[in-house]
Amino acid sequence: MNKLITEPGNWTDRLKKNTIRLGYWTAAWVITLAIAAFGPKFIWDYARLPSLLALLVNLVAGVCWILANKQNLRDLDDLQQKIQLEATALSLSVGVVAGLGYELLEDIHLIGFQPEISHLVILMSLAYGMGVFTGNRRYK
């Protein structure tokens, strides 16, 4: 007989399965991003077709990562969803405000280098991590 979705063991099993799936898609996205970024220079000498294919594979892996993340978030309990929502909102807000300010610094010649997206990704990741950490501490 089928178990109800509300049973604790079934929810725990689903959460574990979702987390593993999210981990696999995260790894796939990172690996395909590395291939798309470094393959043209080190593997196929900037040939267009392999570069385009690598980018398309990365985009597909990215979409699958987004869907796995969405499923994982959907199956969290209400408190964990709230913590994730607050951390995501913090990360997005920091990214928009800091990203635009960072770009403006270069536009008005207050910095002598080109802003890099990787700096913004690191800042947003730190903001997200801090949001999850403080959310878990606040609701403990």
Task: Specify Rg, calculated over alpha carbons.
Answer: 19 Å
Instruction: Compute the average pLDDT.
Output: 93
| Major sheet description | none
Termini Cα gap: 36 Å
Strand runs, count = 0
State the shape.
flat
* String of helices and strands: HHHH
Helix content: over 70%
Indicate how many domains the architecture comprises: 2
* Strand content range: under 5%
With helices defined by DSSP (H or I, 4 residues minimum), what is the helix count? Answer: 4
Q: Structural class from helices and strands?
A: mainly alpha
Could you list some keywords that capture this structure?
single chain; 140 residues; mainly alpha; 4 helices; 81% helix
Structural account:
It is a single chain. The protein folds into two domains: 1-75; 77-140. The radius of gyration is 19 Å and the shape is flat. It is mainly α. The protein contains four helices and no strands.
